[in-house]
Design brief:
Blueprint (H helix, E strand, L loop, with lengths): L1 E2 L13 H10 L4 E5 L3 H11 L5 E5 L15 H14 L4 E10 L15 H20 L3 E7 L2 H11 L8 E4 L5 H9 L3 E4 L7 H9 L5 E3 L24 H12 L3 H15 L4
Parallel strand pairs: 1-2, 2-3, 3-4, 4-5, 5-6, 6-7, 7-8
Helix pairs in contact: 2-3, 4-5, 8-9
The structure holds zinc ion (2 copies).
């Protein structure tokens, strides 16, 4: 099984990352991609990816962290993107991510002045465009994060899209929005499905409509704990729990878990250009 999106680079796993990895391998997880969310976490993603032959990293700055880059000149954004670009040549780096647009109003954020206003969104747009350029320039895959910002995301994708990105882009943790499915079909993107598919009826209805050859599985660990673990409050989520997502997708699609595992693993390899 391929966990195409989990944050083993996060502090949450600092003390037990080796145990979490050994539980993942025991559960049948064969491949993992660890996405970055800022420069430091991208470096950490590369470091953790070196723990196993079939672990890989993505590097990039999450739209939420565009908040730090809202300066009047663009020097800071440029210098951080230079750091990201330096990491791209590392053999473990398969993608730019996670990058995109996010208009969700977060309650727990480290930014004291945090507000989702036009200045913040404009900074996100600029940061997102520049990440897309990096993916095209270096022929890397692209992990898209979108939360409550579909219009913004779609308009930037339409303007910055390059045919090179086809079959190499994923709408990670894709919201249950038919417009996103249409865009994904038009541009040959993959759709990432997470633990909420085990309990969220609108997600289940959405996944029913997504062709299996467009689907990749992801835990988004340490977030989005699947059922029944959610009711049991077994935080945090970890890659071994991908099995619950595979079972849920198999049930929804009328396939066996083995079929879902085989097809989504092949999809993940194609997405990230992995042999
Ligand atoms: Zn995300
Ligand atoms: Zn993520």
């Amino acid at each position: 099984m391929f966990d195409t999106h989990c944050h083993l680079n996060f502090k949450r796993f600092k003390k037990n990352v080796d145990e979490v990895i050994s539980r993942a391998l025991k559960a049948g997880i064969t491949h993992i991609v660890i996405p970055g969310t800022d420069v430091k976490q991208s470096q950490k993603a590369v470091e953790v990816a070196q723990k196993h032959d079939q672990f890989y990293a993505a590097v990039g700055i999450h739209p939420h962290h565009a908040f730090e880059l809202m300066t009047n000149d663009q020097l800071q954004m440029t210098s951080e993107l230079d750091e990201i670009e330096k990491l791209i040549s590392h053999p473990k780096v398969v993608a730019i991510g996670e990058v995109g647009m996010d208009k969700h109003v977060y309650e727990n954020t480290k930014y004291s002045e945090y507000a989702v206003d036009e200045r913040f969104i404009e900074t996100q747009r600029e940061l997102f465009r520049r990440h897309i350029e990096l993916a095209i320039k270096h022929n890397k895959s692209l992990i898209l994060h979108n939360r409550e910002a579909t219009d913004e995301l779609v308009s930037i994708l339409n303007n910055s899209w390059d045919a090179k990105l086809e079959h190499q882009t994923v709408l990670h943790c894709c919201e249950a929005d038919e417009r996103l499915l249409a865009i994904a079909k038009d541009h040959n993107m993959f759709i990432g499905v997470d633990g909420d598919v085990t309990f969220d009826v609108s997600k289940q209805e959405f996944i029913k409509k997504v062709p299996i050859d467009m689907l990749v599985l992801e835990t988004d660990s340490p977030f989005i704990l699947p059922e029944p673990l959610l009711s049991q409050k077994k935080y945090p989520n970890e890659p071994a729990h991908l099995t619950y997502i595979a079972q849920s997708v198999a049930h929804i699609k009328g396939l066996t878990v083995e079929e879902v595992t085989r097809i989504t693993t092949e999809n993940g390899k194609r997405l990230f250009q992995i042999e």
